[in-house]
Amino acid sequence: MLFFMACSIGALAQETEMEQDLFETMREGDKAAIVAVHQGAEDAQSRLSIDRFNTRLRKAYPNYTFYEAWTSRRLIQKMSVNGVSYVPTPDELFNQLHKEGYTHVLIQSSNIVNSADMQFLRHTVEATQPRFKHMRLGEPLLTDEQDYAEAAQATAEAFGSEKEANVLMCSSDVGPENAQFAMLDYALKDHDSRDWYVGTTGGYPSLESLIRQLKHQKVKKVHIIPFIFTANAQATNEMVHEWAQHLQKAGYKVTSEVRCLADVDAIMGIFERHIRHAEKFRRLTAKEQKLIR
Questions:
Q1: What pLDDT is recorded for position 231?
Q2: 40's torsion region: left (phi>0), alpha (psi -120 to 50) or beta?
Q3: Residues linked to residue 226 through DSSP beta bridges, in sequence order
Q4: pLDDT tens across 238-278, in order?
Q5: Residue of 217, 214, 293, 225 whose CA lies nearest to 259
């Protein structure tokens, strides 16, 4: 049975997935693993954020072995030097799972958007997939329209200030993910959160474009909210401080938020929905999609 992903504006549906329960394909002797993939942790605070994510997946799949991998070799090395147990990269972990006889692997990352980090993980999974009977990867937080709507509502409810304009500070470089943050900005305004704005630390919308929007709306007070999964205390505080200085020089009164997305249960719910979808549906390859059109 094909699962149809329909465009909201009424375009023809495209077959991109096939309904196939990952665990129902298991046979005697098969072994399944649940894998959480993160960029990594730089301090105890960001480690707590990761632990919340991992705990959510453990509770969702209590009958299967849980593993964790990090994509940043720099963070792996840094934490290892500080005496923290070594965390493997995804390719190292997948090699280990293959050697240990695992046949089914279900993966969810804590990526916010389809960034270069997420695309590298996709490539790693695709390259490793032939070594397993089934290997599935859940989508990042912001993937379809439902994700944006739920994330916008959850963020507004968890972090919003009624006295100031709320500014989401997103981590991004110049690249395709810029469009995803622009869509987040639109989604916030589309769901009656008109006092919300989105800016990125290295891409678009930039801090400069954000300030132009604030001036156009005649905003006087600004509340900065890091739209980041793991709130590394030092790095996040430095970036918030830098933004606050720029905004203050531009004439705004500034407050800031210290929490991160991992603190919001509804955000964790979106990640869980994505891994459960990956459990139930197998994404068709480009060749398979072409053959059935």
A1: 67
A2: left
A3: 169
A4: 889 999 999 999 999 999 988 889 999 999 999 999 999 99
A5: 225
**Tokens in use for 53?**
């994510």
Contact 193, 156 (CB under 8 A): yes
Q: Which residues contact 116 (CB under 8 A, 6 or more apart)?
A: 173, 175, 177
State the residue for tokens 């299967």: 64
Name the DSSP letter for residue 202. S
> Each residue of 138-166: pLDDT tens digit?
999 999 999 999 999 999 899 988 889 99
Hey, what are 70's tokens? 């990090």
pLDDT tens digits, residue range 211-230?
Answer: 999 999 999 999 999 999 98
Taking the C-alpha atoms of residue 207 and residue 205, their distance in angstroms, rounded to an integer, is 7
Q: How many helices and strands in the chain, by DSSP H and E?
A: 10, 11
Q: Provide the residue type at 20 as one letter.
A: Q
The torsion angle over the Cα atoms of residues 260, 154, 40 and 23, rounded to 10 degrees, is: 150
Name the one residue in this structure whose structure tokens are 């970036």. 239
SS3 category, 88: coil
Chain-centroid distance, C-alpha 17? 21
Place of tokens 């693993």: 33
Give the model's pLDDT for residue 10. Answer: 36
The identity of residue 102, as a single letter, is Y
3 state DSSP class of 49:
helix
Locate tokens 């959510």: which residue? 56
